[in-house]
Amino acid sequence: MDDVKTLTREEAQALAARLEEVLAEIGRVIVGQRPMLEGLLLGLVTQGHILLEGVPGLAKTMAVRTLAGVVDAGFQRIQFTPDLLPADIVGTTIYQRETGAFTVKHGPVFHNIVLADEINRAPAKVQSALLEAMQERQVTIGDRTFPLPDPFLVLATQNPIEQEGTYPLPEAQVDRFLLKLRIGYPSRDEERLVMERMGGGEPPVVRPVIGTAELAGMRAAADRVFVDEKIKNYILDLVFATRDPGAFGLGLGPLISWGASPRATLALVRMSRARALLQGRAFVVPEDVKACGHDVLRHRILVTYEAEAERLTSDDIVTALFAGIEVP
Predict the structure, then answer these.
(1) Most-buried pick from 114, 169, 232, 298 (CB within 10 A)?
(2) CA-CA distance, 158 to 117, in Å (whole number)?
(3) What predicted TM-score, i.e. pTM, was given to this entire model?
(4) How far out from the chain centre does Cα 61 lie?
């Protein structure tokens, strides 16, 4: 990064205007839910996988479909079920009787944007089939390895209230999601607009606004957003405080079973840069870190039984971290 020219203010503002165009097009279908839409869009910019969690009926699947509609890229939806097999995700080899040879048939994961709908309904062996794809952006079928298209993004949904017939995601897989977005209920005014817009007739159809080449350019531009040393140290303090809260004067030790991994540090930097870009700035400020902190950290902090007994969640821990760590 030291040899890369820092993004200029004019470049940042021009890119922010383009991102607002994408959000405006998505907003023709999705009412409200601005934090979720920003998270999805910034996930595209940073090419990070996203886990969306919320009760049924909050337009999680529609939001992903709409996002895919504004991007001129390949899209595939996979409905996860208990009888799904790994080959249904990544593909398999097929014997050709005419030639006596095996040919490879690619699975639905070979698309730019993959919607893993209700991902926690499939058993661990299927969920683990995504691990190599999500981390290495490649898939091994038989004795051959195939690269996945660029960009490649997994957007997964799960229902937090229904436990029957579901399988908790392995921690190794959860950590590979850049963000975990929690979707809440809309306001009364927003729900009235949903009723008027979706209550009769066909919903609006979005048009492609941005292509994969422009997305790649935005990714490169986000990497050029300036991050001051004080901001870097602030991010490191936040992550290290999840592992050793006592060293930072925080009484959270009995509440945290496992702290955040180094992926959290990288995710905070990437997301802070992307959010600064969305705001039209060529530099990161502490508010950028705070704005994405919960989405980056909530699924990377495991709470203890003591915390659960006190009805404290990882979000409560993250809130306490931001309150206790000095802002530069």
Answers:
(1) 114
(2) 7
(3) 0.86
(4) 14
Cα angle, residue 279 at apex, residues 9 and 277 outer, rounded to 5°:
60
Give the domain extent around 178. Answer: 9-199+209-216
Residue 141 has pLDDT above 50, yes or no: yes
Q: To 5 degrees, how large is the angle CA 116–CA 120–CA 123? A: 105
Question: 189 with 254, same domain?
Answer: no
Give the CA count within 13 Å in the CB-facing half-sphere of 286: 12
Report which residue type is found at 297. Answer: L
Distance CA 141, CA 79 (A): 21
Contact by Cβ (8 Å): 281, 295: no
Cα separation of 156 and 121, whole Å? 11
Structure confidence by residue, pLDDT tens digits, 179-229: 998 887 878 887 888 777 776 667 777 888 888 888 889 999 999 999 999
Domain tally, the chain: 2
> Which pair of structure tokens corresponds to residue 14?
């021009």
